[in-house]
Amino acid sequence: MTTGSRVPPSTHTIAGMAFLLVVIAGLVASGFSVYRWLHDAQQLPVQQIAFLGEQQHIDTARLEALVRQSQQGSFFALDVNEVYRLLEAQPWVYRASVRKQWPNKLTVFIVEQQAVAQWNDDLLLNPYGETFSGGHVERLPRLYGPSGSEKTALQGYNAMQTILTGAALPIHELFLSERFAWQITLQNQVRLNLGRQEFIDRLQRFVDVYPLLKQDERAVDYVDLRYDTGLAVGWSGNEKRSENV
Question: 118: how many CB neighbours lie within 10 A of its CB?
Fold first, then answer.
């Protein structure tokens, strides 16, 4: 035998390689067909979207329509993270969790926003001082203040309302100025000017003296509490006067 000569492949080897190539091609074609089938919404559609959790202000039919519009593929093609982001961007949705359930169900758990106050007439505040869009809600206190003061205003409201609850004097409106001076209007329309400092102590002073003010035949219009001691009272009606008490 001459050195360096090459042995031609046998017929069996060529046939085996050809068979292997045919098998690989078949697997690729089958995999592609399965991929297309899994992503075909007609073959594996999301048939049910179940919304769990207590909802008073959320329209789940609207949310389902949004999800189906944004995710028009099959059950396997549905992007859970995208659905999550879509839902949490909706008014009144505080938190959302999304989970696929074989073979064709999507389960969504919703935590609804809790509105505790109106903010500047166009937004709502939740208990954490975060704003959200939710329209107008009746019987909520109205809080007003500069942008970025939401948490401060809500904390002040909660502290003041705690003092006023014992006197059955709920707050109707609260104003926090650019200089962080406080003014509130009670449900009985009495206005209280509390200033910037020691507003809790000043409010307590009003609560202590209010029973005496109610004994007057005239209705109280406003009370100015921006004094180290005492306060000034404005009376409603044709005759108004201010006096230290």
Answer: 21
Distance from C-alpha of 222 to C-alpha of 234, rounded to nearest angstrom: 5
CA distance 51 to 105: 11
Tens of pLDDT, residues 18-68: 666 666 655 655 555 445 544 454 567 888 999 999 999 999 999 999 999
- Topology, domain 48-112: Ubiquitin-like (UB roll) (3.10.20)
- Identify whether the C-beta of residue 197 lies closer than 8 Å to the C-beta of residue 227: no
CATH 3.30.390.30 fits 117-244, yes or no: no
Q: Give the Cα separation of 186 and 91 in Å (integer).
A: 29
How many angstroms separate the Cα of 130 from the Cα of each of 11, 81, 148, 182?
77, 23, 10, 20
Question: How far is Cα 43 from Cα 36, in angstroms, rounded to an integer?
Answer: 10
Sequence-ordered alpha helix ranges (H) in 127-239: 150-165, 199-213
pLDDT per residue as tens digits for the range 111-147? 999 999 999 999 999 999 999 999 989 899 999 999 9
- The amino acid that residue 79 corresponds to is D
- The total of other beta-carbon atoms located within 10 Å of residue 38's CB is 14
- CB atoms near residue 6 (< 10 Å): 5
Question: What residues have CB less than 8 Å from 78, skipping those under 6 apart?
Answer: 46, 71, 100, 106
Cα 148 → chain centroid:
17
Q: Is the peptide bond before 141 cis (omega within 30 degrees of 0)?
A: no
